[in-house]
Amino acid sequence: EDKVVQSPLSLVVHEGDTVTLNCSYEVTNFRSLLWYKQEKKAPTFLFMLTSSGIEKKSGRLSSILDKKELSSILNITATQTGDSAIYLCALSTSGTYKYIFGTGTRLKVLA
Amino acid sequence: DAMVIQNPRYQVTQFGKPVTLSCSQTLNHNVMYWYQQKSSQAPKLLFHYYDKDFNNEADTPDNFQSRRPNTSFCFLDIRSPGLGDAAMYLCATSQGRMTDTQYFGPGTRLTVL
Fold first, then answer.
1. Chain A residue with minimal CA distance to B90?
2. CA distances from A70 to A23, A63, A65, A74 (A)
3. What average pLDDT is seen over chain B?
4. How many Å apart are CA B8 and CA B97, to the nearest integer?
5. What is the mean pLDDT of residues A77-106?
6. Cβ atoms < 10 Å from Cβ of A27
7. Are strands A3-7 and A19-26 parallel, antiparallel or unpaired?
8. Given an 8 Å threshold on Cβ–Cβ distance, is B103 in contact with A90?
9. I want to staple A101 with a disulfide (CB 3.0 to 4.6 A). Which of A79, A87, B11, B42 is the partner?
10. How close B86 gets to chain A, by Cα (Å)?
């Protein structure tokens, strides 16, 4: 059965810290991995990763996929209180239009 | 702006009283999804459409039905809501290509009294 596991489940840091969130997966026919940020509303798209080793970057956020290790990390540098949210990882597989979500990492950034 | 719109944003219903949630999109995407998300949990896929082809998840209760009358609109019908159906209901779309992003609407928060 396809599975997505995120760690840690929750994290509390102080402003200015750097955090690394992890997403591990077991899927057949991997197609893409997506990261979302969810505050008190619907998830908003951050990154889509399809190729191993290519870093995607947007401001203080970056992400990379390691297909050999079946995992991805999401880095946030110089965290701000506005980064407090749940970060969701989702996978899509070939042959289906479904996305499999992990349970998310709840990040809280203290001022 | 092209987007995914959900109405209403908040819905209160009574135990057993049917309710319909609405989703529309201006992205002209082929695939539309309905997810249920309860507090502190990941979104759980209920069903999805590729165009008019309906795909139900095996563990979606029969109490949940969906309609997609055209490309732009998709509805979630909950025939007899129970207290356990109180949740955020998220509609999402994707183009349906090999490398694809899924876009979410703002969600409808359902309360069952």
1. A42
2. 9, 14, 8, 14
3. 92
4. 29
5. 92
6. 17
7. antiparallel
8. no
9. B42
10. 15
**Cα gap B96→B29, rounded to integer Å:** 7
pLDDT at A98 over 90: no
pLDDT of residue B42: 87
Of B41, B45, B104, which is closest to A98 when you measure between CB atoms? B45
DSSP 8-class letter at B73: E
Which of B42, B100, B102 lies at the smallest CB-CB distance from A103?
A: B42
Q: Residue B47 is encoded by which pair of tokens?
A: 């069903």
Which pLDDT value is given to residue B48? 93
In this predicted model, what pLDDT tens digit does every residue of A39-69 receive, in sequence order?
878 889 999 999 888 899 999 999 999 999 9
Among A87, A91, A7, A77, which residue's Cα sits nearest to residue A49?
Answer: A91
